[in-house]
Design goal:
Jelly Rolls, four-stranded antiparallel sheet, alpha+beta, 21% strand, binds 2-oxoglutaric acid, nine-stranded antiparallel sheet, 7 helices, 271 residues, globular
Length: 271
């Protein structure tokens, strides 16, 4: 009788088992561009669990949430009492909502990659990101060009954020856009508005923004981006909501400045 041969690397199993770490080329891409994408990093069961936690959070918004109306970004409802005023933009404190978020930030394929970008000892702050970004079809807003580090306070501007797509992210549903290489550039204060968004009316900013690239993702794909990489996002013009899980990581030797918001919550030591 012929032996039964099982090929462990059929396309299906390969897709369900992402490589354990970034290739050297991926790491170079991150160093050059300030971002890199890992495809299909989150498995289906975990993605479904995080989606279920997202729907539970939206159905019972008694936990900490941010409404579109709170930020007043372009396109947001004018107040919480206006039509669409209770549209949630972020389910905050994701880590406290379901054990699946702990599983996600400790997933070996994720942790190995963050270590390649930040070094062997890493910490996951709970004061920043630690959320599910929710972008609803009818009442979403535009996020201007910004660096996440603008309101954060660490010894050095060295953190990497990890953006997990729970569903497809495309230009028409408000995916992120990034400007490659901006994490390595210096910007003087005159280029920003009072909220520290890049002023698109300035020629030098418009020239920079012209280099933008959309970050289109499939469910389970992950964007890793530097805290100094300029990014922005449009509205959700589709008929379906878009959900993304976002955490940030820092090297252990880059602690928050005492007394600041960055130091206001516990942090996770990643084993
Ligand atoms: O609107 C978006 O999806 C972008 C969100 C974002 O960049 C942020 O909150 O830092």
């Amino acid at each position: 009788m012929d032996a039964l041969l099982i090929d462990p690397q059929t396309p299906d199993t390969a897709a369900a088992s992402p490589a354990r770490e970034f290739s050297a080329e991926d790491v170079d891409t991150f160093r050059r561009d300030g971002y890199v994408i890992a495809r299909k990093l989150a498995g289906e069961a975990l993605r479904e669990r995080l989606l279920a936690a997202t729907f539970a959070g939206l159905a019972d918004p008694t936990g900490p949430v941010e409404y579109e109306a709170d930020l007043q970004y372009p396109g947001a409802p004018p107040s919480r009492s206006a039509p669409g005023g209770r549209t949630i933009r972020r389910l905050k404190q994701a880590h406290a909502r379901d054990f699946g978020f702990t599983e996600w930030v400790a997933q070996p394929e994720l942790v190995a990659r963050v270590r390649q970008l930040l070094g062997p000892d890493i910490v996951c702050p709970l004061a920043h990101h630690n959320c599910v970004m929710t972008k609803q079809p009818r009442f979403s807003s535009e996020t201007g060009w910004h660096q996440d580090i603008r309101y954060w306070s660490y010894q050095r501007p060295e953190l990497v954020s990890v953006w997990l797509a729970l569903g497809p992210e495309r230009i028409d549903n408000g995916c992120l856009w990034v400007i490659p290489g901006t994490h390595r550039m210096q910007f003087d204060a005159a280029r920003f508005d009072p909220e520290k968004f890049l002023r698109p009316d300035l020629t030098e900013n418009a020239e920079l923004i012209a280099q933008r690239r959309p970050v289109e993702l499939e469910a389970g794909d992950v964007l890793f981006f530097h805290c100094r990489t300029f990014h922005a996002a449009g509205r959700n013009e589709s008929d379906e909501p878009k959900f993304s899980v976002v955490f940030t990581f820092r090297p252990a030797d880059n602690p928050p400045v005492p007394g600041t918001r960055s130091a206001s919550l516990p942090e996770l030591l990643i084993p």
